[in-house]
């Protein structure tokens, strides 16, 4: 079987007019997900890491259900039910959140963030090996620039410590699971499911898995004690999960997973800016340079519109 390039927007058959809204959804989703580290820091004094991951998903379910009913009422042609791809997306996101929190517990936040930025590498590898899609040249070029930018953004804080190798390993596993999530959501959207149903079904699976994880592994409090921590959990669910993951599902209906996975770099940029604005964490010249390189890499890798061929040509 010959290997074909990873599909871009044109190859997917999406109308060129849909490029702008899909890109806007991708960027907005990245900003929403980028707020999650700040919110986790707000609730961490009162709620354990696995519990906060569970509440992030569980509290979003009513909103996602309402969005699903609204979307399908407006678009009756959308497929109902639960496809294997949507269920796989939920399992993959469960692994992502579980190993992300294990990485945070086992290594530094900088190390965990650094290894999480390898998500697009795994997307390209999985799509190439499993789906026989050869990556386009501009995808690889943009990915290389984004990786350089991600390393510049967080690299000076990364520490090599043999005692933290297990946590670093969990960070890499996190990236692999999130890559599977991207590909599973892309496949579910290609099978005719709406963005809301994909996000809701995947979130239901994730909530069930994380509830079991909390029951077995959580050693810290599960419920918040203060109004500020409860508000932080609500914001984590409504903004970072319902908003961030929902907009990502919208984007993956029109944009390829290989390009959309670069959102992880936008998420890192958004997290750095939000930490600077809300927590007073300094942004140095290297962080600014890293953010600029990430934006440049995304510009290089962005999907191109298919040229319009005149019907008068023979």
From TrEMBL:
One of its GO terms (cellular component) is membrane. Keywords: Membrane, Transmembrane, Transmembrane helix. Residues 23-149, 172-300 form the EamA domain. InterPro entries: EamA_dom, EmrE-like. It comes from the Bacteria. The chain crosses the membrane at residues 21-40, 52-70, 82-103, 109-128, 140-159, 171-188, 195-217, 229-252, 259-278, 284-301. Pfam families: EamA (PF00892). This is Permease. It comes from Methylobacterium variabile. The lineage of its organism: Bacteria, Pseudomonadati, Pseudomonadota, Alphaproteobacteria, Hyphomicrobiales.
